[in-house]
Amino acid sequence: MTIRWLSAFLDFPADSFSNEVTFWRAIAGSTVSPARGPDRQFASLEPFNGDPHLRVQRVKDGPGGVHLDLHVDDMKPATAHAKSLGAHIVSAASDLVVLTSPAGFGFCLVPWNGEHERSRPIRWPGDTISIIDQLCIDIPAKLYDAECDFWATLTGWPWRQGVMPEFRNLRRPKEMPLRVLLQRIGSSTISGHLDLASTHPDEEVARHEGWGAKVEQHHRFWTVMSDPIGRRYCITHRNPRSGDLTH
């Protein structure tokens, strides 16, 4: 199985969809594509250069969340590969297979449509440079090792140990627009969130607060934020071009 592209999907409840899209479009520095899908429930956050790797979906039930789309050449062998590793199929069609990982994190297999050009980071007034470039899967401690091995085997990208013991990341090919970070957490429920890399996190935080976000926690390398409806994400002190931590 060869993964050609990655997309992060933000799943928004219907009653907050418009406001959430407006906020995330603003912090990504993007425009919004025309709606698509049978109920016009999908759209892409279009970068000013390169191919989109951030997409949005209006969901009918539940609080929403975030999931990962793997763009592949051939859906059938990719589905069989995922299933052989312990993934569970939720639904399957010729152009979309919805699955969960062994620990329960949602992801989809979709056909590759030629996406190949990574978007460049945005330079904001004041010379801050940033980009939303990472999906972090928050994994309960007792499931952590097995889930890390699942994602490494599924993608074919070995994981490497992070600077801190509770983090590992997959060694993505250089053309991939998203990093996948694997975090060990104390909670019993798996979840996920997006991370933004910034050259000047303090300026980035202030700008996001101006758009309605709130600071929840400060850490050495990242700040935990919540968007206007309480969805968590992180502003991290990383190089927006390489994705590496800035010490």
Automatic annotation (TrEMBL):
Domain of life: Bacteria
Pfam families registered for this protein in UniProt: Glyoxalase_6 (PF18029)
Signal peptide stretch: none
Matches recorded under InterPro entries: Glyas_Bleomycin-R_OHBP_Dase, Glyoxalase_6
Protein name (database record): Glyoxalase-like domain-containing protein
Boundaries of every Glyoxalase-like domain copy: 10-110, 134-236
